[in-house]
Amino acid sequence: MISVQGLTKSYGSTDAVRDLSFSVGRGEIVGFLGPNGAGKSTTMKILCGYLPADSGEVEVAGFDVFSQSLQARSRIGYLPENVPLYPEMRVGEYLGYRAALKGVRGRRVPEKVQDAMDLCGLGAVRRQIIGTLSKGYRQRVGLADAMVNEPDILILDEPTIGLDPNQIREVRELIKGLAVRHTVLLSSHILSEVEMTCSRLLIINKGRIVATGTPSELRERSGLPLSGAVRLEALVADAQFALREILALNIGSAALLGNNGEWSLFEILPDGGDPRPELFDLAVRLGWKLRELSARESSLEEIFRSLVQSPASAVSAKEER
Predict the structure, then answer these.
(1) What is the mean pLDDT of residues 209-232?
(2) Looking at the structure, do residues 54 and 192 belong to the same domain, yes or no?
């Protein structure tokens, strides 16, 4: 649904985007991540036809964004970071006005407005003046505006910015449900939300894609070591003996966190690598019954930081689709 090849855009002597290439397939929800100034907003504006490019090719829903701009834009719903709304209009009135501007005709306008309001949970505020709405509801109105003409593609720039935790969760669930009808490309700095919402991630830094893949694929390919403690809970006869056996493996420091007379919980801080295979072999050799053997993997935030701060550690972008 989106195909970008060799996209370049400069502002004077500064390259905002350099030879950028990526694609987004039908029905995907793709997170577009990068530090401030990485080129995310520039790329999104080019996709939407708001900015020209210096070079490269961009297709949206099969239309060339540069030579078939009107056809391409009619297939896109765009939610910018700061949602431009008319605060003096009522919600239903505003969405009807926007639907007409986007080419929805005649009797279809009320139908499309109702569909967008139903999807975004706006039925209860249909007649309310936009300026009196909460930040969360204004964000929903902006999303309904992006969807009112049923575009093939939704491009959402920071859709949860400024929302409280409950509003973020509501918008996240709404976006996840949109993949049934739409392809979604969204940008956000809330990495935990991106990980819970998106099926695939694109990470951009200094105008180039440095990594692409699912969160689990990026974690696996990043090469980062385990970033936290390993926890082992086992049924052992002698907790202190078990602790000495764990320390004898020379895999790092270890401590006994608790013992209720039967089950003992240990925490191991590894020196490097994943010590769980050795811990499992130890449990088998000594006949322990395991109830937990887990480790905290590197978070998406840690992977993101390693990619945008250390080019040498970047996951190869050659694996992108």
Answers:
(1) 76
(2) yes
The region, left, alpha or beta by phi > 0 then psi within -120 to 50, assigned to residue 250 is left
Residue 302 lies in a domain: no
The residue written with tokens 């109702």 in the block is 114
Q: Do 258 and 195 sit in the same domain of this protein?
A: no
The tens digit of pLDDT for each residue in 99-149 reads: 999 999 888 999 999 999 988 889 999 999 999 998 888 988 998 999 999
Residue 113 dihedral angles phi and psi, to the nearest 5°: -65, -45
Burial of 172 (0-12, 13-18, 19+ CB in 10 A): buried
Q: What are phi and psi of 213, to 5 degrees?
A: 150, 175
The structure tokens listed for 300 are 């998406």
Residue 136 belongs to domain spanning: 2-223+307-319
Lowest pLDDT segment from 191-195, 275-279, 304-308: 304-308
Which of 195, 115, 192 is closest to 150 using CA atoms? 115
| 81, 63 Cβ separation under 8 angstroms | no
Q: Which residues contact 232 (CB under 8 A, 6 or more apart)?
A: 246, 265, 266, 267, 268, 279, 283, 290, 292, 293
